Amino acid sequence: MAPTPSPSSKRPLVVSGPSGSGKSTLLSRLFEAYPQDYTFSISHTTRAPRGAEQNGKEYHFVTKPEFEKMIEEGGFIEHAQFGGNRYGTSFQAVREGGKKEGEGEGETRRVVLDIEMEGVKQVHKTDLNARFVFLQPPSVEILEQRLRGRGTDKEEAIVGRLKQAEKEIEYSKTEGAHDRIIVNDDLEKAWEEFREWVRQDEQVK
Ligand SMILES: Nc1ncnc2c1ncn2[C@@H]1O[C@H](COP(=O)(O)OP(=O)(O)OP(=O)(O)O)[C@@H](O)[C@H]1O
Known about the structure:
Elements: E1 13-16, H1 23-33, E2 38-40, E3 43-45, E4 59-61, H2 64-72, E5 76-82, E6 85-90, H3 91-97, E7 110-114, H4 117-125, E8 131-136, H5 140-150, H6 155-172, E9 180-183, H7 187-199
Parallel strand pairs: 1-7, 1-8, 2-7, 3-4, 8-9
Antiparallel strand pairs: 3-6, 5-6
Helix pairs in contact: 5-6
The structure holds adenosine-5'-triphosphate.
Residues 17, 19-25, 146, 149-150, 184, 187, 190 line the site of adenosine-5'-triphosphate.
């Protein structure tokens, strides 16, 4: 009998881009369109939950000491500090991410990582053999409008996100950093391009 593929045998997808570039918007569509095929790796964060966010669903919310202990134990593939908070992707989350309760080992979902620039660099150093896509806003001005329009961030946070966005955009120009860059100008066009790129690895497109 052929060996059962482990959950991590499907190449993970790494989605990055400045805050407000539309990662959540496109990923929500992806999960809605193909609920059987993809799953998030749930990150750990020291930031406080926003709105209706639940522990273990959007993030694993942990304290700073808990986060530091995980770093010491080598539990993270990548971790970064952003806006005064820490974020990390654990090896365990990626390994287990593909499994769903009540399903056989072979029925795994491809893991999607939604991470920022430093995380992308770290994932490049692992043997996860990931595919990388960068979501680029049409311009920093439009990014600013979207961040304000979203209404979830304080003025200070918006300024910080815009500064970071410029660094992310600069890094995206590095050779080999990403397999695909998608400019999120018109949402429908961006979705179609994203969908097509994501589905390349699937047998049924
Ligand atoms: N193509 C688009 N045209 C207009 N508005 C858009 C487009 N794509 C996304 N938006 C809007 O821009 C805002 C930011 O998008 P979103 O929250 O998906 O960004 P994000 O990259 O997930 O940000 P974060 O990293 O902070 O979670 C949202 O209000 C979203 O509805």
